[in-house]
Amino acid sequence: MSDRDGTLWLDGQYIPWRTANTHVLTHSLHYGMAVFEGVRAYQTAEGTALFRLREHTERLLRSAHILQIPVPFTLETLMEAQCQVVAQNHLKEGYIRPLVYLGSEKMGVSPRGAKTHVAIAAWPWGAYLGEEALQQGIRVKVSSYTRHHPNITLCKAKASGNYMNSILANNEATADGYDEALLLDVEGFVAEGSGENLFMVKRGVLYTPDLSSALEGITRDSIIQLAQERGITVLERRISRDELYTADEVFFTGTAAEVTPIREIDRRVIGQGTRGPLTEKLQSAYFDCVKGRAPSHRDWLTFLGD
Ligand code: PMP
């Protein structure tokens, strides 16, 4: 990732991609105290647009606030920098990664005295779980790793350290030949994927776990709104793994994963074993929004040059 042409934003400056280095004694590298975002830019008929940029940037600042990391940039500056990084790298579509991390001024668990740095990179990134996954669905395994307890870490923060749990689960699932892991909470109820929220369809009703130990996904929020606009009942409540086994449809949502159907969980076929009709309806509604084909949700798009 580091050896490529391009421009990155670092602490207010646009710098060449290859020179965006950090010292090995960077505090966040040692202790995982950093927060980040994942944002997508899509090509629309009227040019490139970033999807729900404001909400992502607000969540970045909320994550930093939760972890008491002072951020020396305003929401507006960070939004503008993300647009500029996409434009300066001549991306028509891509993935944007803002990262707030603590520098190399000090070592030791306490971050006091370490300076906050903010970096923004953007690069082309196609379907996270593959193009075929969006149509055919993926195979998922319930993880032997439990999702974070909300009193062990702070799950509303999209924090780097939280992702060790995600990596362990994803490694385990993919090593066993599955596409992705599904994590349960400390009480054994469904929480989320390693980088996705989850939805279940039963008899036309859409269910999604409450957010006690899952990230407040922006794609999740978009899907809830799109479903409600189509008269679909959406219920947020605890879901057990065996409810999923007998669901009509299950799918993951996330900025990277977009809307990915799940066709099998723990070797149980879900529904017809392929993308279900409601999943397809919401997936296509989502793609209409991100690609600028849904006039009612134009406010979710920030066009380059806006
Ligand atoms: N849960 C986790 C753990 C994630 O990493 C992500 C990706 N950011 C999500 C859920 C989905 O969030 P969003 O839709 O905002 O990308």
Please write the CATH class name of the largest domain.
Answer: Alpha Beta
Distinct ligands, ions and cofactors found in the model: 4'-deoxy-4'-aminopyridoxal-5'-phosphate
Number of domains: 2
Q: Give the CATH topology of the largest domain.
A: D-amino Acid Aminotransferase, Chain A, domain 2
Portion of residues in beta strands equals 25-35%
Kindly report the name of the CATH homologous superfamily of the largest domain: D-amino Acid Aminotransferase, subunit A, domain 2
- Average of the residue pLDDT scores: 97
Which architecture of the largest domain does the CATH hierarchy give at level 2? Alpha-Beta Barrel
pLDDT < 50 runs, ≥5 residues: none
Q: What's the helix count? A: 8
Radius of gyration: 19 Å
Reported for the largest beta sheet, the result is: 9 strands, mixed
The structural class is: alpha+beta
Distance between the termini: 29 Å
What pattern of helices and strands is seen along the backbone? EEHEEEHHEEHEHEEEEHEHEEEHE
Walkthrough of the structure:
It is an enzyme of class 2 (transferase). Its cofactor is pyridoxal 5'-phosphate. This protein is α+β, with helices and mostly antiparallel strands and 306 residues long. The chain folds into two domains: 7-123, D-amino Acid Aminotransferase, Chain A, domain 1; 131-290, D-amino Acid Aminotransferase, Chain A, domain 2. The chain has helices spanning 27-31, 53-66, 75-88, 131-136, 163-175, 218-229, 241-245, 277-290; strands at residues 7-10, 13-16, 34-36, 39-44, 47-51, 94-102, 116-123, 138-146, 180-184, 190-193, 197-202, 205-208, 234-236, 249-254, 258-265, 268-269, 301-303. Strands 8, 9, 10, 11, 12, 13, 14, 15 and 16 form a nine-stranded mixed sheet that branches. Strands 1, 2, 3, 4, 5, 6, 7 and 17 form an eight-stranded antiparallel sheet that branches. Strand 4 (39-44) and strand 5 form a beta hairpin. Helix 2 (53-66) crosses helix 3 (75-88) and helix 6 packs across helix 8. The longest helix has 14 residues, at 53-66. The mean pLDDT is 97. The protein binds 4'-deoxy-4'-aminopyridoxal-5'-phosphate. Residues 38, 166, 192, 195-197, 214-215, 217-220, 253-255 line the site of 4'-deoxy-4'-aminopyridoxal-5'-phosphate.
